[in-house]
Amino acid sequence: MSVSFKGVTKRFGDLIAVKNVNLEIQKGEFFVFLGPSGSGKSTLLRIIAGLEEPDEGEVIIDGKVVNRVDPSKRDIAFVFQNYALYPHMKVYDNIAFPLKMRKYPREEIHTKVLEAAEMLGIRHLLEKYPYQLSGGEQQRVALARAIVRRPKVFLLDEPLSNLDAKLRVRLRFELRKLLHDQLNTTTIYVTHDQAEAMTMADRIAVINKGEVVQVDTPGRLYNNPVNTFVAGFIGTPP
Ligand code: ADP
Ligand code: MG
Predict the structure, then answer these.
(1) Strand order in the sheet with 76-79
(2) Does 40 sit in the ligand 1 pocket, CB within 6 Å?
(3) What are residue 142's DSSP bridge partners?
(4) Does an H or E element contain 171, and which?
(5) How far is it, in rounded angstroms, from Cα 32 to Cα 8?
(6) What ligand has the least distance to the C-alpha of 40?
(7) CA of 99 to the centre of ligand 2 (A)
(8) Where is the ABC transporter domain (predicted)?
């Protein structure tokens, strides 16, 4: 599904967290919001998910204005930075949870959990509890739980930031392969890490103080930054 912003603004009191954002994210695109801490990236994702309502403008998913559509009625999955798993549930039940909540039949739940676990290489972990897993394994479980319903739009908020450097680099490629190449979902990914953005994105929106400064492919951002903020952030040599 495509996702668009038309003149979207979000304020928290006097603070303008998101300022007049206009964007069109294509179906199947791997789209990255890149910006420093506090630039409004999470707020943008939360607006797409329906966890925040914009003060001005429209959010459009698949051609429909969704400003007032309940989060549970949007065909969207969200993975947060700290990907909290349910500690008292086995991995299997963590992954099955979104389907159980929606009262899927037992057989279908079983098939879908196994499929998701297979994709993320965690079938051998299904009977374990979260505390028995490493950070990277927990992250895979969180991803399996998010893809189990095969959402059309996938939102990820700094999903790799709690992992060690080596795993982070490996998961960049795996995530893109899974979401973009295998599932062909529309993925909207937030990070402050320019290397992550440059290696994963089809297109990047560089965000500063709530505003979209430039939207382009990694190559074009690198070669044609519109200003010194983008150049500095992308790391273009002088
Ligand atoms: P980022 O994800 O890029 O670090 P955020 O979207 O979390 O940035 O925040 C953007 C700005 O909005 C920050 O200044 C933050 O403090 C502020 N902010 C975010 N959420 C709230 C909230 N619920 N109440 C008040 N201020 C908020
Ligand atoms: Mg954030």
Answers:
(1) 76-79, 153-157, 186-191, 30-34, 203-208, 211-216
(2) yes
(3) none
(4) helix 165-176
(5) 17
(6) 1
(7) 27
(8) 3-234
Closest atom of ligand 1 to CA, residue 210? 10
Q: Is 15 touching ligand 1 by the criterion CB < 6 Å?
A: yes
Highest mean pLDDT out of 74-78, 139-143, 192-196: 192-196
* Residues near 105 by beta carbon (within 8 Å), at least 6 away in sequence: none
Cβ–Cβ under 8 Å, residues 221 and 29: no
112 phi, psi to nearest 5 deg: -70, -35
In which residue are the tokens 């966890």 written? 51
3-state DSSP percent of the chain in helix, strand and coil, to 5: 40, 25, 35
| Contact by Cβ (8 Å): 152, 185 | yes
Among left, alpha and beta (phi > 0; psi -120 to 50; other), residue 157 is beta
pLDDT 10s digits, 72-119: 888 888 887 666 899 999 999 999 999 999 899 999 999 999 999 998
Name beta bridge partners: 41: none
Residue 54: its H or E element: none
32 in Cβ contact with 203 (< 8 Å) = yes
In this prediction the ipTM stands at 0.98
CA of 17 to the centre of ligand 1 (A): 6
pLDDT above 90 (res 198): yes
51 alpha carbon – ligand 2 mean position (Å): 14
Q: Answer for the pair 214, 24: CB distance below 8 angstroms, yes or no.
A: no
Residue of 117, 120, 62, 75 whose CA lies nearest to 95? 117
Token pair of 158 as six digits? 């700094």
